[in-house]
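Running co-folding for coenzyme A.
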Amino acid sequence: MILSLTTCTEDSREALRIAGRRAARRALQHAAASPLVEIKRETTGKPYGVRRDCARPIALSISHAYPYALAFASTKSRLLGVDVERIRSFSPRIENVFLTPSELNWIKAHSLESRDIWRTLLWSMKEAVIKAIGTGLRTHPARVDLTPILSGSSAICIHGYRLPATVYAARVGSTHWMAAIALPPFGRYTLS
Ligand SMILES: CC(C)(COP(=O)(O)OP(=O)(O)OC[C@H]1O[C@@H](n2cnc3c(N)ncnc32)[C@H](O)[C@@H]1OP(=O)(O)O)[C@@H](O)C(=O)NCCC(=O)NCCS
């Protein structure tokens, strides 16, 4: 699995999309060990790659948050999701909407001044999950429960179903988090 991070000098939607495609091409080329790659999209907007010489699909996910663009690619049969997110504050109302009760307890175990850092990490991991399953925000983030991974298991829950998950999260400089998630290619995901 290949992660490719790039920076963008201009804070515009178009410049970030171009930087995202640049990161995606680089990740796809490394994953496929070939320069002959193309970026395609499902009707939902979820991106994937193909190797032009053998038409084999390559799992792909893209994210951008100025000044970063990030892509995640793999030739393995996995659902991939990636997110890069600027650390920001969340109102109590928003926090109560997107976090589950046990995630809220996990946040409360941290010092007051560090909580926005941890809230942003959980938001970023949830975005990576809903991008991996391809529904985006049509799946309510509270339907993704990160409690297993927060307590040391390699798993997450979606709509109450526990799935094995490979999760990678890291700070990008002092201002951003990035999260990358790989899920097994099975299951039926609903939009609620
Ligand atoms: C996918 C989604 C979560 C992206 O969130 P975001 O924080 O705005 O943006 P990010 O930079 O992290 O990600 C954007 C990338 O997500 C990818 N993406 C778009 N739709 C996707 C989907 N259904 N599944 C997985 N990835 C998707 C695209 O590659 C996009 O970048 P690109 O257009 O430059 O290629 C959000 O756009 C979404 O939920 N879209 C689908 C549902 C929808 O349209 N909802 C409207 C609001 S309810």
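Result summary
Residues 8 and 67 are 5 Å apart (CA to CA).
The two ends are 29 Å apart (CA to CA).
Job closed.
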